[in-house]
Design goal:
This protein is α/β, with parallel strands linked by helices. About 30% of the residues lie in helices and about 20% in strands. It contains 4 helices and 8 strands. The chain has helices at about 5-20, 55-60, 95-105, 145-160; strands at about 40-50, 75-80, 110, 115, 125, 130, 135, 170-175. The strands form 2 sheets. Strands 1, 2, 3, 7 and 8 form a 5-stranded parallel β-sheet that branches. It is globular and about 40 Å long. The termini are close together.
């Protein structure tokens, strides 16, 4: 799903599709029926952090609904966009909020990403020395986005495979906001 993360979501979906030879739809969280998540093995959720650590309107309206739509045992990968220079003390906070809601809904989170190479002071999306998912900053590091997405997709697919997923590629959807 996507919203303010549409461009990044399309890049993630295209990279997933290229590596798995299957279609990966992107759906805006604002208009997406979360009940459809049950149809997918791998769910990729994206969140842009707005202003001082706020959820974008799409997630603000739907975050509480995640638990109701049964992510129990579902594999979820996360990515977030934000501005680490302009908002260094709330960088990717929305991603942390989405991660918490997905875990509360029973999801198995894959694809944590190292914090090295970023310049921020605090984030709700950090656990230990890693982000809960891919961290993107097109305001300050746009030249790193494509490489980070390619590396992260490779990491996510490896983790899914190591977890004992079926022999074929999992069905996937990208749902950013």
């Amino acid at each position: 799903m996507f919203g303010a993360t549409e461009a990044s979501a399309e890049l993630v979906a295209a990279e997933l599709a290229a590596r798995t030879a299957q279609s990966v739809p992107c759906r805006d969280v604002t208009w997406f029926d979360l009940a459809e998540l049950a149809d997918y093995d791998l769910v990729v959720l994206g969140a842009a952090t707005w202003n001082i650590g706020q959820l974008p309107y799409g997630w603000a309206d739907k975050l509480a609904d995640l638990e109701r739509f049964g992510l129990s045992g579902k594999t979820v990968a996360l990515f977030g966009t934000g501005d680490q220079v302009g908002y260094p003390d709330t960088y990717l906070d929305a991603l942390g909020m989405v991660a918490d809601a997905a875990r509360d809904a029973g999801a198995v989170i894959v694809g944590s990403w190292p914090t090295a190479g970023y310049a921020f002071t605090a984030s709700r999306a950090v656990e230990g020395a890693r982000f809960v998912g891919l961290a993107l900053d097109d305001d300050n590091q746009p030249d790193l986005t494509a490489t980070r997405i390619a590396d992260w997709v490779h990491l996510v697919l490896d983790e899914v495979e190591q977890a004992g997923s079926r022999g074929s590629a999992p069905s996937m959807i990208a749902v950013p906001g």
